[in-house]
Amino acid sequence: MKAMTLVGKKLPLELQQREDLTPDAGQVVVRLSTAALNRRDYWITVGLYPGIKPPVVLGSDGAGVVLACGDGVDRGWEGQDVILNPGIGWGNDPAVQSEQFHILGLPEDGTFASEVVVPVEQLHRKPECLTWEESAAIPLAGTTAYRALFAQGNAKPDDRILITGIGGGVATFALQFATAIGAEVWVTSSSTAKIDRAISLGAKGGFDYREEGWEKRFVAKVGAPDLIIDSAGGPGYGGLMGLAAPGGRIINYGATAGAPESIDMFKLFWKQLRLQGSTMGSPDDFSGMVDLVEKYQIKPVIDAVYSLEDTNRAIDQMRSSPQFGKYVLKIA
Ligand SMILES: NC(=O)c1ccc[n+]([C@@H]2O[C@H](COP(=O)([O-])OP(=O)(O)OC[C@H]3O[C@@H](n4cnc5c(N)ncnc54)[C@H](OP(=O)(O)O)[C@@H]3O)[C@@H](O)[C@H]2O)c1
Prior knowledge:
Elements: E1 2-6, E2 14-17, E3 27-36, H1 39-45, E4 56-57, E5 61-69, E6 81-84, E7 87-88, E8 102-103, E9 115-119, E10 123-125, H2 132-137, H3 139-152, E11 160-163, H4 169-180, E12 184-189, H5 192-200, E13 205-208, H6 214-221, E14 227-230, H7 237-243, E15 249-252, H8 265-270, E16 274-277, H9 283-295, E17 302-307, H10 311-317, E18 326-330
Parallel strand pairs: 11-12, 11-14, 12-13, 14-15, 15-16, 17-18
Antiparallel strand pairs: 1-2, 1-4, 3-5, 3-9, 3-18, 5-6, 6-10, 7-8
Helix pairs in contact: 3-4, 3-9, 6-7
Bound molecules: NADP nicotinamide-adenine-dinucleotide phosphate.
């Protein structure tokens, strides 16, 4: 099998020929048709992720066909078209992951390869409404968006929702999921073109988060949002607390812009805000996300498709975030 392997810290991935995989008890080998990139893969290649231990095959998202089953696995899986839940070992508490929780593609070998081995519990049948490319795009980002919006944010059709940094892979799913249930969705972006793309996907409009005072203009034009889905944090976070409606919820699944400079405790308690963290999702969140995609026939937004051999070029693109939606790898 072939695999794009991280062979040392801060090095480009190396295309390696490796032994074909065999499953242990409870595991399956999946022959991958497609994979997709996440910001996590970029963070790992630039050395900004905890627990980097080369050599490791990166990649958390994948879709393919089950090739072989280990002892104790239902042979009915063989030959099935599947997608993979990249969150391994969530545990029994829907509120938070267990200490054993980890993500496919570090420390275990991931999906930037022609084959991957995973516990059978990670398999989910491939949605029929999606192509192979679209199927690989949904697992990590779709689950993260689903949990942030619904399990943590309790998003409802009559909510006004603001999604920040709409160019991000997770943010784009959050937009598609929130508009699918009929919520009123607004976005922010550093790019007018991305705001226009968001409007074409159902957003009411958007604001440039780099412009001074955009929050005040938002409230004047639109009114305060009930729910804010944010992955930036950073200096702009205080502005989001000012912007949120009284009783509003701000859900964070990332901190692309770093830590907030300050938290206004007065705003926090007087407005009775809920500041909530969110990470990936439980197995129920994963299957809830797939059900939602199928129910509303949601087509993931794919910015570009690269070959497996071109993975480094795709990762390099993420440096300046020109993308809208996902980068996908075509493997077979
Ligand atoms: N906790 C989890 O389970 C989890 C899961 C997935 C991702 N994450 C984290 O979430 C973040 C986003 O990941 P992703 O893969 O969806 O994104 P991505 O595709 O890498 O895109 C990042 C986007 O962030 C936006 N951004 C950058 N600086 C911003 C700022 N100051 N204010 C608002 N938006 C800003 C940009 O949007 P514009 O281009 O529109 O300006 C950019 O396109 C990353 O930090 C990632 O590590 C966490």
